[in-house]
Amino acid sequence: MAESVGTENGEGGDATRRDFIHIAAGAAAVGAGAMLAWPLINSMNPAADTLALASIEFDMTKVQEGQQIVIKWQGKPVFVRYRTPRELQEAVATPLSALKDPQADADRVKEGHSKYLVVIGNCTHLGCIPTFGTGDYGGWFCPCHGSHYDTSGRIRKGPAPKNLVVPEYAYLSDTRIKIG
């Protein structure tokens, strides 16, 4: 009888230990699987910096005549330029036949607000950021590969195939725009 009691306790003890080992191993496997899957699942979420900047508002009174302000939208620089009367006149007077990517200045600005130019500040060649005032046409110059843009952001010379991109934007009031 003492032997049968010992056997029952021994088997009961072994079964409990065995169950614990199986449960612990299963829990460890589930945890490891979750740790491996988390980066993949998390990468499907939109990036926080682009999600927060799906659209952005900007007060145009911050830009003085002849000045350019750079704002960040969706991780890209956006140039907001208040063009001088001379820059505006040059942009309007440029014949479309002189342009690599023909586009009238009036098509690049909002009606009634032609003094303001809003463009994404990435060169259309390889995405470098052009500098203002150093180009041959009074506009932007991309130092990476030598693209020259005029005062309307249109490509005039160099390897860039297209004009600087005008983002989707709208005037909320006479002095406030919403980009995106």
Overview of the structural elements:
A four-stranded antiparallel sheet has the order 5-6-7-8, with no helix packed on it. It has a three-stranded antiparallel sheet with strand order 1-10-9, with no helix packed on it. A three-stranded antiparallel sheet has the order 2-3-4, with no helix packed on it. The protein has three helices and ten strands; from the N terminus they run ααβββαβββββββ. 31% of the residues lie in helices and 24% in strands. By secondary structure, it is α+β, with helices and mostly antiparallel strands.
Which key terms come to mind for this protein?
single chain, 180 residues, alpha+beta, 4-stranded antiparallel sheet, 3-stranded antiparallel sheet, 3 helices, 10 strands, elongated, disordered N terminus
Number of strands: 10
How many helices? The count is: 3
Provide the structure class.
Answer: alpha+beta
Question: Average pLDDT, to the nearest integer?
Answer: 85
Biggest sheet, spatial arrangement of strands: 5-6-7-8
Estimated helix fraction: 25-40%
Major pleated sheet = 4 strands, antiparallel
Give a quick rundown of the structure.
The chain is an alpha+beta fold and 180 residues long.
List the helices and strands and how they pair.
Elements: H1 2-43, H2 48-52, E1 56-59, E2 68-73, E3 76-82, H3 85-93, E4 116-120, E5 131-132, E6 138-142, E7 147-150, E8 155-157, E9 169-171, E10 176-179
Antiparallel strand pairs: 1-10, 2-3, 3-4, 5-6, 6-7, 7-8, 9-10
